[in-house]
Amino acid sequence: MEAASTDLSLALVDPDGAELAGDAWTADQRRTHELLPRLLALIERSGHVLEETRALAVGIGPGSFTGLRVAMSIAKGLAFALERPIVGVPSLVAWLESEPEAAAAVARAGAREAFVLDRATGELRVAAAGDGDLAAGRRLVVATELAAAFDLAGSAPPFGAAAAIGRLAAARLAEDPAGDDLSSLEPGYLRGPRGIGQPEGTVRWL
Prior knowledge:
Layout: E1 7-13, E2 19-26, H1 35-45, E3 56-59, H2 65-82, E4 86-89, H3 91-98, E5 104-110, E6 113-118, E7 124-128, E8 140-142, H4 144-147, H5 161-175
Parallel strand pairs: 3-4, 5-8
Antiparallel strand pairs: 1-2, 5-6, 6-7
Helix pairs in contact: 3-5
């Protein structure tokens, strides 16, 4: 599951990473609670049951604090209850995986700022609204909530992100079936919440 922005997505993949079913939608930031019921409905529509799940995979950000917390809580809760491995995948890496023609992935970093992951360099940086170099004629995968604010018309939303997370997680599990440590896996926020002073070192808020 992916909830680093208001463009949420879910996917079921087989152990080889091939997508079996998916769901994607743009929602208000206050409606990330739709993740679990839509996931259960997706499993049911695909003709499977929750207990058949062999692993959980979740986007770890950076991006929306609320979305990342909700998705991580659901994924970790299911992994714990089902006693299945869990894999966390950097969200912007999955966004680029989902859009092979995109030169960069862009997610909200603040009121007028965005996290930008450049495909060519692998550099993750923060850009301000109005940054003329952000688009520069390039195809981007951008959260819908940013496309208008940053004047990035023609960009693609990250609706295929959950399927990409599934593919990347399947590849990792093929090499390491244990996945990530359930107790220590957490979102990669990169920044503290609004109104809280920036701490030194890695930002870790649960």
